[in-house]
Amino acid sequence: MGRRKIEIGLAGLGNVGMGVYANVLKNSELLSRRANAHLNIRKIAVRDLKKARDHEPPIPSDRFTNRWEDLIEDDEVDVIVELIGGIDQAKELVISALRKKKVVVTGNKALLAEHGQEIFSLAKEMEVPVYFEAAVAGGIPIIKAVQESLVGNAIQMISGIINGTCNYILTRMREEGLSYQDALQEAQVLGYAEADPTLDVNGWDAGHKAVLLGSLASGRWVPADQIHVEGIENIRLGDIQFVETMGYTVKLLGIIRCTENEPLEVRVQPCLVSKQHLLASVNGVYNAVMVEGDLVGETLFYGSGAGQNPTSSSVIADIVDAAVGLQHDEKRGYVPSNELAAVKPIEATLSQYYLRLHVENRPGVLAQIAQIMGGHDIGITSVHQPESMAAMADLVLTLDRAPYGSVKQAIAQIQGLSCTSEDTTLLRVESFEDPA
Ligand SMILES: NC(=O)c1ccc[n+]([C@@H]2O[C@H](COP(=O)([O-])OP(=O)(O)OC[C@H]3O[C@@H](n4cnc5c(N)ncnc54)[C@H](OP(=O)(O)O)[C@@H]3O)[C@@H](O)[C@H]2O)c1
Prior knowledge:
Elements: E1 4-11, H1 15-26, H2 28-35, E2 37-45, E3 64-65, H3 69-73, E4 79-82, H4 88-99, E5 103-106, H5 109-126, E6 130-131, H6 142-149, E7 155-161, H7 164-176, H8 180-189, H9 198-201, H10 204-218, E8 220-221, E9 228-229, H11 237-245, E10 248-257, E11 265-274, E12 286-293, E13 297-304, H12 308-328, E14 337-340, E15 350-360, H13 365-375, E16 380-384, E17 392-403, H14 404-415, E18 425-429
Parallel strand pairs: 1-2, 1-4, 2-3, 4-5, 5-6, 8-14, 9-11, 11-18
Antiparallel strand pairs: 7-10, 7-12, 10-11, 12-13, 15-17, 15-18, 16-17
Helix pairs in contact: 1-12, 4-5, 5-10, 7-8, 13-14
The structure holds NADP nicotinamide-adenine-dinucleotide phosphate (NAP).
C-alpha cells in the first residue's frame, strides 16, 4: 500500500510555527518513513499577510490565509496545529477544529490550563485526540512521559524548573551579582525574555504548566484559580547571595505533590534548593522536571524548555503521533477524567523555611521573635546575623517544618513589633520529600 498524505493546517507562523514549517521540510524523508505518510503543510494562517517570512525556498503565497477558519473549512485538512498563542481566538479555533473532527496539536499552555477540561471533554465526545507535548517545557518530552511511559505509576511528586526566563535571571544574579532589573534586561536583549515578560516573571507561565502536570499526575483537572503562584520579581540579590553561604541556591520551582487521601498540592514559588540536589545544577535557560512514581522511583528530564527548534521537536512528534493515529484509528496518551481535582490551600502546605528579617540591632530582639514563633508552634533551626554595626540589621532564621499559613501569621505579628521593619523575605526550603 502506498504512503498516505496527511494534510496539515498550520495556524501561526511565529517563533514556533516557523520552526515547525522549516523542520517538517528539513526532516521530511525520515518523517514520512516514521509516520508511514507524507506530512504536507497545506495551509498556513497568520495575522498579517504582508509580513516578510524568512524561509528558503520562499513559502508559496497561495498557502497563506489571514482567516484561520479557512484551515477548518478545508475538508482535506486532517490535523490542525494551533500555534497562535493567546486564549480567546485559540480556544475558538481548537473548539471549531474538534467539532469538524480534525485532530488538534497545540503548544498553548495558557489555553489548556484555563479551558483544558472543556476542550478534552469535547475531544472525547467527538472521538478526536488533542496532543500538547510542546505546552510544558518546550523540547523536553515530559507530557508523553507522564501520559504514556509512566502511566502505570501512582505519581507521588513532580517538581521542576519549568520557566527558562526565570532560571536565566536567577542564574545571572547568583553567578554575576547582577540586580534583578539588569538580569531581566540582559535576558530580553538575548531574546530569552519577551518584550513584556510579565507572565514569566510573575510565575504564571510556570503556573499554567504546573496546572497541566498536576492534572496529568492526579488524573483530574486542576482549577487554575486555586493554585498558589509567586514569581521572582521581589527576589533580592542579597538573599540569593546569602543562601549560597548556607549551601543553597534559589530556584523558581513548580511543585505538584500527590498524597493519598489528601487534596493535591500544586504551587509555583521561589525555593531554596540544596546545592547537592540535581536541580541546583540546572542553570541558564535550561529546564528540568523530576517525576517520582511509586513503581519507577525518581526520574529526571532535562533540556531546552523553549526556543524554535526544541519546541518544534515536540510539535512535530505530536504531528507524527497524529499521522500514525489517523492511519490506525487510535489515540495515544491518557487524559485526565472530566472531574476537578481538590487542591490543598497553600496555608496548609508544609515545608521548612528561610526567613530574613530587618530588625533593630540590639539585645532582646531575637527573644521577642522566638517567642512569637513558639506561640505558633514553629521551631527555629538556625539563626544567622551577618556582622553589622548599623542600627538596623538583617537577621536570618531557618524554620522547622510548619504550615505556610502559621508562618505567614507569625511574620505578620513580628512585623507589628516596634523593633522590626516590613523588609522581609520568606522562601521555602524544598526538601523534595513528603513533609507529612
Ligand atoms: N516560543 C517558545 O519557545 C514556546 C515554547 C513552548 C510553547 N510555546 C507556545 O507556542 C505558541 C506560539 O508561540 P510563539 O512564540 O511561536 O508565538 P509568536 O511568535 O507570537 O507567533 C504567533 C503567530 O500566530 C499568528 N497569529 C496570532 N494571532 C492570530 C490569529 N488570530 N489568526 C491567525 N494567526 C494568528 C501570528 O501571525 P503574524 O506572524 O502575522 O503576526 C504569528 O505568526 C504559544 O501558545 C506559546 O505559549 C512557545
